[in-house]
Amino acid sequence: MDDLPLAAPQADASPEALCPYELVAAGGDPGFLVICDHASNALPPGYGTLGLPPSEFSRHIAYDIGAAGVARELARALGAPAVLARFSRLLVDLNRGEDDPTIVMKLSDGAIVPANRDVDASRDADEFARRIAMFHAPYHAAIAAALTRAEEAGVAPVILSVHSFTPSWRGRARVWHTGILWDRDDRVPAPLIAGLRAEPGLVVGDNEPYTGRLKNDCLYRHGTARGLPHALIEIRQDLIEDEAGQAAWAARYARLLREIAGRPALRAIRHFGSHTDAASPISGV
User: Residue 2: what pLDDT?
Assistant: First the structure.
């Protein structure tokens, strides 16, 4: 199809233009690491609009609306480093494992993505491998490097992944203001959920509106597999569309996280395993 964008980045694009992540405050407090997998709706040079109308990139299919602002404010409030994605989830979803069939979305909330039509390991394997090597792998390597720096400093860092969700889905309103997604490790999720539910008027989801029990997703890779405490924060998008909302929610989460940061159990490496594992979890220091 003549109207499709190029299937690969421009050969003359600079390394900076193709870098898939932004590292904020690398020298910050190693006790926390904030990450944002779906921070951006941009695409790298050479990919055009993936064959989509530009208007589609203002929708949630391209990025998590408001999440980047919350992530930046949360990292600032905690004095912590942050790793934010620089490109759209429509290029490659950084919150998916390489074996997940939705890592390169072909259809998202009614939108067909023409340039992704054949991009998978069995058809256009070269382009699939290129996106993994150029965009997915470096992002995860940046997260792993930040965690290793913290561990080398004698700290078991808390990983906080910031996402957002739409106010309604398939015609049904979502009642939650925020939700915490988690698997077996409840060291961060349990006190966060309790603290949020203690605030008047907040409707707080426990593994809602999504589940945190996903094999090889970002927190499985960096939290569960490494035995590090972690939680995925979801916030409804209409609450964080502007800077005021983003700052308010970041401040709320920062206050709760500071309250639990000194708990001894939080600062140990423990392997809880996952509900997605075939074997029983192994728990221990």
Answer: 32
Domains and CATH numbers, the chain: 15-267 (3.40.630.40)
**Count of all residues that appear for the chain in the document:** 285
Q: Indicate the burial class of 131 (C-beta count within 10 angstroms; 0-12, 13-18, 19 or more).
A: buried
**Would you call the peptide bond into 209 cis, given omega within 30 degrees of 0 as the criterion?**
yes
Residues 6+ apart with CB under 8 A from 2: none
Dump strand ranges (E) for 68-227: 82-85, 107-108, 111-112, 158-165, 168-169, 172-173, 178-181, 204-206
Q: Is 3 a residue whose pLDDT tops 80? A: no
216 versus 282: the higher-pLDDT residue is 216
Sign of CA dihedral 178, 37, 192, 80: negative
Query: pLDDT (tens digit, 9 = 90+) per residue, 205-234?
Result: 999 999 999 999 999 999 999 999 999 999
> For the range 100-104, what are the long-range contacts, defined as Cβ-Cβ under 8 Å and sequence gap of 24 or more?
100/216, 100/217, 103/136, 104/128, 104/131
